[in-house]
């Protein structure tokens, strides 16, 4: 599974700490379906927030669970950095060989 690491310009506050380094993974169809259950995909930013809750591996030392409220408190530059990394992880995942199990 493809992941992308990056740095938030401003950071995410978790408790008393502000974390800046992050890692996101590529979104699976299941992630998208689960995000759609919570919000309409036509509400782009709300959908992206739901998707980020599912594909964010870690921000700083925090590994989750991530809630929509955590992402809603970010500055726009931090949100944009995460969304761009999520798109990059998806692109990397598309170029990687499939790992499909037959069940």
The percent of residues in helical segments reads: 40-55%
End-to-end gap: 19 Å
- Give a count of the beta strands, DSSP E runs of length 2 or more: 3
Low-confidence sequence ranges: none
Q: Quickly count the domains.
A: 1
Tell me, briefly, the overall form: globular
Q: DSSP helix count?
A: 4
Strand order of the largest sheet: 1-2-3
Radius of gyration: 14 Å
Strand percentage lies at: 15-25%
H-E string: EEHHEHH
How would you sum up the major sheet? 3 strands, antiparallel
Mean pLDDT: 92
Class of secondary structure makeup: alpha+beta
Set down the secondary structure blueprint.
Layout: E1 3-14, E2 17-25, H1 29-38, H2 44-55, E3 56-59, H3 68-72, H4 76-95
Antiparallel strand pairs: 1-2, 2-3
Helix pairs in contact: 1-2
Describe this structure in words.
The protein has 103 residues and is α+β, with helices and mostly antiparallel strands. It has one domain (3-89). The chain is 46% helix and 24% strand. The protein has helices at 29-38, 44-55, 68-72, 76-95; strands at 3-14, 17-25, 56-59. Strands 1-2-3 form a three-stranded antiparallel β-sheet. α1 packs across α2 (44-55). The mean pLDDT is 92.
How would you briefly describe this protein structure?
This protein is an alpha+beta fold.
Q: What are the defining features of this structure?
A:
103 residues; alpha+beta; three-stranded antiparallel sheet; 4 helices; 3 strands; 24% strand; globular
